[in-house]
Amino acid sequence: MGTQAVWDLLRRVSDPEIPVLSIVDLGIVRGVQFDGDACVITITPTYSGCPAMDVISREVKTALHDEGIDNVRVDMQLSPAWTTDWMTEDGKRALASYGIAPPSQKVVDISSLKRRGVDEPVVACPLCHSARTQLVSQFGSTSCKALYKCLDCREPFDYFKSH
Q1: What is the pTM of this model?
Q2: Which of 39, 77, 151, 155 could form a disulfide with 132 if both were Cys (CB 3.0 to 4.6 A apart)?
């Protein structure tokens, strides 16, 4: 099995906290390579200390074992730090369909290769698409999300923070 086939398998591994996202769409899979007979998957957590990483590592190994790849190593890479810029457009659409507002701005400004400032983004409601929303809490259901409410439809929703 080649590396492209492994990438295709990893697209079927869901994030345990947001099951509509694959770990590839989330952007945490940094590399797939073979080292002799070992398949090495490199992943970067969304946050250092992310509690889902053990589950994700186990799910990656299970998915590859189920396809006959017995020698699997999952390496954790902390640098460069994960950023929402690594999420795929399909992943962002899946978040919105699931009721979580996707990141609304790029973290890295490629025109000058520096991190953006911490301006509060305009976050559209994933339910009614109104831009009239308000931050309720910097922390939502998980540490990578913030809690917002829509001032039009009055519904609360999570926003996947840009970082």
Answers
A1: 0.78
A2: 151
